[in-house]
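Transcriptional regulator prtN: structure tokens wanted.
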Amino acid sequence: MSNRNQAPLRLHPAPDSSTVELLYRTFGDVLIPLDRLREQYFRNLNEERFFAEINSGRIQLPITRLDNSRKSTKFVHIRHVAALIDTCAYKADEGMPGQSNESTE
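Answer:
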């Protein structure tokens, strides 16, 4: 049996539980309003630019709404924010110069 026509499965790593816990302490809920998230972590972007970055996929956060109204508050789930933070931290670790698995003698 061949699975050539099947799309590859892309699973993101699960966020650290400590990252989720710290975010919960900061925001107090599992759904984080986008405006509070922008104020906390993306202060360098104005509201319009922040939404443009999300819509373009440069900031990879799925947006959630609790109802279908266009005016409803937009949220991001706490685990998605935690996964984004952890992924950025792992990428930063990989990019550090001078780190290797070889020991110097």
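The longest helix spans residues 78-94. Residues 19 and 25 are 10 Å apart (CA to CA).

Cheers.
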